[in-house]
Amino acid sequence: MWGTGFFKGLGFTLKQLKEPKVTYKYPDEPVIMPKRFRGIQHFEPDKCIVCNQCARICPTGCITLVGKPNPDPEKKGKVIDTYDINFEICILCDLCTEVCPTEAIVMSNNYELATYSRDNLLKDLKWLDNNNQNVREENH
Ligand code: SF4
Ligand code: SF4
C-alpha cells in the first residue's frame, strides 16, 4: 500500500504547482539574455577602416577580410570588400570587438546559430550587417 513517502511527495508536488515557473517555452519564446551576454557579432561595413586588428587578435583565426581602395578619389585609405566569420570555430570571446577602433564590429545578444549544415556557419559581410537586432545597449 502507499506509504507516508508517497503522500509526502504528492504534497511537495502540489505545493510546487503554486510556485512561479522557472522554465522557458524555448524555442517558441526566445530567451532574453543578460545585457553583457557575448552573442553573434554585428558588423557595419561603413565604419570599417580595414585595419585588420580584429583578424590579427582573433585567437581562432576565424575572421577573413579583404579591403579595396576607396572608390572616392577624394578620400584616402581602404574600404571593406569582403568580411567573413567562421562560426564553426568562433568562441565568442569578444576580443575582435574590444580592439576595433571604430566599433565596426560589436557583439549582439543573439545566439541562434543552429543549422543542419556546417557550411551555413560561415557568415559573410551581408549576413553580419543584417544581424543588427539586439545589439548591446552600449553600442547603440
Ligand atoms: S569573438 Fe573571438 S573567436 Fe570570435 S571572431 Fe571575435 S576574436 Fe575571433
Ligand atoms: S578592427 Fe574594426 S575597423 Fe579594423 S578591420 Fe576589424 S572591423 Fe574593420
Automatic annotation (TrEMBL):
Annotated EC: 7.1.1.-
One GO CC term, this protein: plasma membrane
Binding site for [4Fe-4S] cluster 2: C58, C90, C93, C96
A Gene Ontology BP annotation from the UniProt entry: aerobic respiration
Binding site for [4Fe-4S] cluster 1: C48, C51, C54, C100
Protein's name in the database: NADH-quinone oxidoreductase subunit I
Entry similarity comment: Belongs to the complex I 23 kDa subunit family.
Cellular localisation: Cell membrane
Co-factor: note: Binds 2 [4Fe-4S] clusters per subunit.
Keywords attached to this entry: 4Fe-4S, Cell membrane, Iron, Iron-sulfur, Membrane, Metal-binding, NAD, Quinone, Translocase, Ubiquinone
Quaternary structure note: NDH-1 is composed of 14 different subunits. Subunits NuoA, H, J, K, L, M, N constitute the membrane sector of the complex.
Underlying gene: nuoI
NCBIfam families recorded: NuoI, PRK05888.2-1
Membrane topology, from the record: Peripheral membrane protein
Cofactor(s) demanded: [4Fe-4S] cluster
Pfam families named among the record's database cross-references: Fer4_7
UniProt KW Lyase keyword: no
All copies of domain 4Fe-4S ferredoxin-type, residue ranges: 39-68, 81-110
Coiled-coil ranges per UniProt: none
Function comment: NDH-1 shuttles electrons from NADH, via FMN and iron-sulfur (Fe-S) centers, to quinones in the respiratory chain. The immediate electron acceptor for the enzyme in this species is believed to be ubiquinone. Couples the redox reaction to proton translocation (for every two electrons transferred, four hydrogen ions are translocated across the cytoplasmic membrane), and thus conserves the redox energy in a proton gradient.
InterPro entries linked: 4Fe4S_Fe-S-bd, 4Fe4S_Fe_S_CS, NADH_quinone_OxRdtase_chainI
Organism: Tepidibacillus decaturensis
Annotated catalysed reactions: a quinone + NADH + 5 H(+)(in) = a quinol + NAD(+) + 4 H(+)(out)
UniProt superkingdom: Bacteria
Any GO MF annotation of the entry: 4 iron, 4 sulfur cluster binding
Gene3D superfamilies: 3.30.70.3270
